[in-house]
Amino acid sequence: MSVEDVPPRNVWDVLRNDGEAVLVDVRTDAEWNFVGLADLGDAGKQPVLIPWQVYPSMQVNGAFADHLRKAGLTPLNKLYFICRSGARSLAAAQAAQAAGFTHAFNVADGFEGPPDADGHRGTVAGWKAEGLPWRQR
């Protein structure tokens, strides 16, 4: 299986219209706290927060699939994985598929996307640049 990249606006539409769709944010605590989170209130949901890598060592979270299950997620859920730019979330979605979560997708360009010409993120592509709802934690 391969993981499909889904544009952020399409993910937002699915989250609002599909009760089985879940956004799994795989960034670190520091990113959730200082950069912000997708605000899914209008969809009647909250993002599921499970780090793919554990800060500060940045080792891959060996219990990632177990954490998905403990969060109440099942292979019936459509899981949309998001990170800063789409790289960690792709790896997390691949691991989820390998663990039996067949409906695993990657949010293209992640929460902040690539840096702009001045080195700032959140303006070129990704959840924030698309003007989708988000908030500071």
Automatic annotation (TrEMBL):
Location of the Rhodanese domain: 17-123
UniProt xrefs under InterPro entries: Rhodanese-like_dom (IPR001763), Rhodanese-like_dom_sf (IPR036873)
PROSITE patterns cross-referenced by the UniProt entry: RHODANESE_3
Family annotation (Gene3D superfamilies): Rhodanese-like domain
Pfam families to which the protein is assigned, alphabetical: Rhodanese
Lineage top rank: taxon: Bacteria
Protein name in UniProt: Rhodanese-like domain-containing protein
Organism expressing this protein natively: Teichococcus coralli
